[in-house]
Amino acid sequence: MSALDSLATWLEATRVAQVVGSSMWIVATLSAVHVLGYALVMGGGVVGNLRLLGWVAPTVSVGDVLRPASRAVAFGLVISIVTGILLVSWKAVAAVGNDIFRIKMLLLLVAALLHFTWQAHVARTARADGGDARLPGAIGLLLWLGLAIAAAAYILFE
User: Fold this and answer.
1) What angle do CA 118, 122, 123 make, to 5 degrees?
2) pTM here?
3) Which residues form the domain of 77?
């Protein structure tokens, strides 16, 4: 058994997981808050990447768009991670064994790392015309859109 499988088994056995899984109202409330966090993550990620591509606010500096977008992504990530762990807690073993869930988590990790490393660097050093920001913008946009597709697929096919 892998460490991830052991963690999932432990998480499912916790009292919190049992309470969450036993209440439709708790799951519904957590789901609603999770969607709000997801909206912040996706909104910040998409707007930031559209600016890097030069498709949104081309007269505003990359940094002036990416800074508030990054705050939205960071705040949304905190909300999404906390509620996501709670939502998956009562079915963690099945989630960890689900290929779509694993792809979703990988895309989230890579998109967030790209956003807070390479794109943050580009925002600090971008040329005035933003031309050097297009590649990280295109890659980031594809990652965030891939995450949206994976999230929808997980809901549909779990």
Assistant:
1) 120
2) 0.91
3) 3-157
